[in-house]
Write a structure and sequence with these properties.
heterodimer; A: about 300 residues; Rossmann fold; Alpha-Beta Plaits; 2 domains; six-stranded mixed beta sheet; about 30% strand; globular; B: about 240 residues; mainly alpha
């Protein structure tokens, strides 16, 4: 069931050196309740895609459908909340007044106090918006996005201005909100954020989608887990011959095995080398998947 | 409509909290009025205009104050654009029309308060008019402010928050001076002044002379400025849909 559909979205901009194709005909389907990361380096076309999704930028070609409606109608119905990449707050209102004002624009908003407590800004509710720190401003911007009680929450690189603690609190809130059956799409270039907080990642590079799937599946595409262990008396060639191992490196007694099937590899390793100790098995992480996939894309473009 | 009302309410609240804005568009004209008109409150025919000094300067400073208030309301679009607030609003059900309406209502409300304060000051210096004349004069000033509504919105879209202060200050200084806010203009200046919208704001004081304060010429010039500034504002807005 597709609830949010981006179809054949294309957008070019005029630049000093000719026309730049920022988004080259992408398709993304999202189901209600999914949390999807739009992942890619700067300049991949993430913000342009989000602007088109929100109706802030008309696509050259392609269409957007949000719960069966065009973007504008979905927004008017109060179904969409967004935290844009850049933006501050208007001054001369308290945090509470700002959220109340935004809530008043929507047909069925969340109660103001619930928004304040959800985003952890009750303690600064009576402070004027121009007197907030950078991290506090981000939290209030998040509160603005949640005020309408949206079905679809769109976040464009939301944690850029936050410190580590702020990020953690932010994602906890996002998960809590998503847990209410809401759909979330967030853009990020932090690979670990996509890995940790999304069900699914859409990888963008140079205006195209280079991969789209569950974050675990994306990791599996690049395959691979790594076993690190201290293995007395092991030989690199023997380790490479173990089932499920694609390559091995050894330095003294420490060995690193890259595996296509880490389950088979660890069984064989412990069977063959019962004295192996300090065993660690780690996933490759999206970082590696990302470099691999965008690297392939670059080669394809060069060829 | 509820959304529109709510937004207007908070827009007004924000305006009333902006101390600098308040002092300049409300306090400043009053103080200047007493300084300029207080000294010659017994002059009954200012520079041969046929209008008493307290009345002439009351309307002159009302023109100055309301022009400032109306321009400033539109000009506040500039900092809101700069911080991306207009994009945030565009993803709410609030229509662009309602957003502009809130600015215009705020500007006009400030203008009305300015008028009320200056009328009270004028009466304290002996200005006296029949009720119908007060109303006619007020109506002319409110209509005469229309070009400034569009001008403020235009400035708000084409100027950065850094440049908008000097541009607005220069514009109001120039339009006040030539429009006859500080003294009745005559000769060549008078010919130039007649094509400016500020001249016709000040000219509203001519209701005291009987007959028509504006005449066809005044209405035509105010209408032309309103049309031209509205076209500029509409074009600036249309170009402004991109990320800032």
């Amino acid at each position: 069931m597709t609830d949010i559909q981006l179809q054949g979205l294309t957008k070019s901009f005029k630049a000093p050196r000719g026309v730049v194709e920022a988004v080259k005909g992408i398709d993304i389907d999202i189901s209600r309740g999914e949390t999807v990361a739009l992942l890619g380096p700067n300049g991949a076309g993430k913000s342009t895609t989000i602007d088109m999704l929100l109706g802030l930028l008309p696509p050259d070609r392609g269409s957007v459908s949000i719960f069966g409606l065009p973007a504008r109608e979905a927004i008017d119905a109060g179904m969409v909340g967004a935290m844009l990449q850049t933006g501050a707050l208007i001054r001369d209102l308290s945090v509470r007044e700002l959220i109340a004002m935004m809530a008043a624009l929507y047909p069925a908003p969340l109660p103001v106090d619930e928004v304040l407590s959800l985003t952890g800004v009750q303690d600064i509710a009576d402070r004027r918006t121009q007197k907030l720190s950078g991290g506090q401003t981000q939290r209030v911007r998040f509160a603005v996005a949640l005020a309408s009680n949206p079905e679809l929450l769109v976040l464009d690189e939301p944690t850029v201005a936050m410190d580590v603690e702020g990020r953690h609190a932010f994602w906890t809130t996002m998960r809590e909100f998503a847990g209410r059956g809401k759909t979330v799409l967030f853009a990020t270039h932090y690979l670990e954020e996509a890995d940790a907080y999304a069900d699914r990642a859409v990888l963008m590079a140079r205006g195209t989608i280079v991969a789209d799937g569950p974050t675990t599946e994306i990791k599996a595409m690049v395959g691979n887990r790594t076993i690190r262990a201290t293995i007395p008396g092991a030989d690199v060639a023997d380790l490479e011959a173990l089932p499920g191992v694609t390559s091995a490196e050894g330095r003294g007694e420490a060995a690193v095995l890259r595996c296509s099937d880490s389950d088979a590899a660890i069984r064989a390793l412990l069977d063959r080398y019962p004295t192996a100790r300090d065993v660690e098995i780690a996933g490759a992480g999206l970082e590696e998947a990302f470099l691999r996939l965008t690297g392939e894309e670059r080669q394809a473009v060069a060829a | 409509m509820n959304a529109s009302l709510a937004y207007t309410r908070y827009e007004l609240l924000r305006t009333f909290r902006n101390a600098r804005f308040f002092i300049f568009s409300l306090g400043f004209p009053i103080v200047l009025y007493y300084v300029i008109a207080g000294g010659n409150k017994n002059v009954s025919n200012l520079n041969g205009s046929g209008i008493s000094a307290p009345l002439y300067f009351m309307v002159g400073l009302a023109a100055f104050g309301t022009m400032n208030a109306i321009l400033a309301a539109g000009a506040r679009i500039s900092p809101e654009r700069a911080v991306g607030w207009n994009r945030q609003l565009r993803i709410t059900p609030l229509s662009v029309r309602a957003y502009f309406r809130a600015k215009v209502i705020t500007g006009y409300l400030m203008a009305l308060i300015t008028l009320a304060l200056l009328y009270a000051a004028g009466i304290s210096l002996g200005v006296s008019l029949p009720a119908a004349k007060w109303l006619e004069m007020t109506a002319l000033i409110l209509v005469g402010l229309l070009p400034f509504v569009a001008m403020g919105i235009y400035f708000g879209h084409v100027l950065t928050p850094e440049s908008i202060g000097p541009v607005m200050g220069g514009t109001t200084a120039f339009l006040s001076l030539l429009g006859g806010v500080w003294f009745p203009v005559s000769g060549t200046l008078h010919d130039i002044a007649q094509v400016l919208p500020s001249f016709w704001l000040v000219q509203a004081s001519h209701v005291s002379l009987g007959g028509q304060a504006w005449g066809a010429k005044g209405w035509l010039i105010v209408a032309a400025w309103t049309a031209a500034m509205s076209a500029l504002a509409a074009r600036a807005y249309a170009r402004d849909t991109q990320r800032v």
